[in-house]
Amino acid sequence: MSTAVDDELWSAIGDPTRRTMIDLLLSDGPGTATSLSRRLPVTRQAVSKHLAVLDRVGLIHAEPAGRERHYQVDEAQLARAVAQLSAVGATWDARLRRIKRIAEAIERSRTDSEGE
Amino acid sequence: MSTAVDDELWSAIGDPTRRTMIDLLLSDGPGTATSLSRRLPVTRQAVSKHLAVLDRVGLIHAEPAGRERHYQVDEAQLARAVAQLSAVGATWDARLRRIKRIAEAIERSRTDSEGE
DNA sequence: GGTTCAGTGCAACCAAAGGTTGCGAAAGGT
DNA sequence: ACCTTTCGCAACCTTTGGTTGCACTGAACC
After folding, report:
1. Residue A23 is part of a domain; what is its CATH number?
2. Residue percentage of chain B with pLDDT more than 70
3. What is the pTM of this model?
4. CB 3.0 to 4.6 Å from B14: which of A14, A19, B7, B61, for a disulfide?
């Protein structure tokens, strides 16, 4: 099912603000806490905390540049996260399909014995 | 990007306990707060709250049966959630690929001008 | 060199969410 | 009738996302 490490990644990308931040870092390239906060409805400090969380799980890494800290997405780690997303999706999808097959089988056997 | 409705679905399936609950409801069929709590590391009340959350966003629905309340996954809604999961995954995947292409292009132009 | 300005980090504080315990109420089995 | 099981509600604790306020540092400008 899901391990502790998986849950860390999940909870990291589960937050809507952090998802948007990853989106921004991917679409606009590396950015700082201040630059990100300008494009988000939260303060710089909130962004800074989120960056710390994402950094801890390895989804991004910082690169000090003078007085700024440039954050950048770790592509390999994000690829891993995406893989886990699709894995859960695939699991649920498969179970939904199985349930549907069973439901259809029941429906068939019910209509088969309808004339009794 | 992400709408408010999307975020509701996300935060619903973002919680590890709720994800496991959905897993259990899919694999073992309908269940009650008590039956689920027996297979989870949390109390019945915690499970009950999660069930309420999942019910509010429509991912599951309850069916009162005597003194019990049987909860069951809403397949259509879960299918929608899965679609959103894979949508985000696909977006990030595409951006990762684009970044990789750009990086390779830069690498090429760098090695081209290496002999100067 | 000193002043000023933008970017950061740290600490205190607040509200919401996940989790717990304790209790009373209602449906079932004996 | 009694006891058990399941549930819902309320109070409480802890974590987390968010805020404000302040002190610090690198860079630019005089």
Report:
1. 1.10.10.10
2. 93
3. 0.88
4. A14
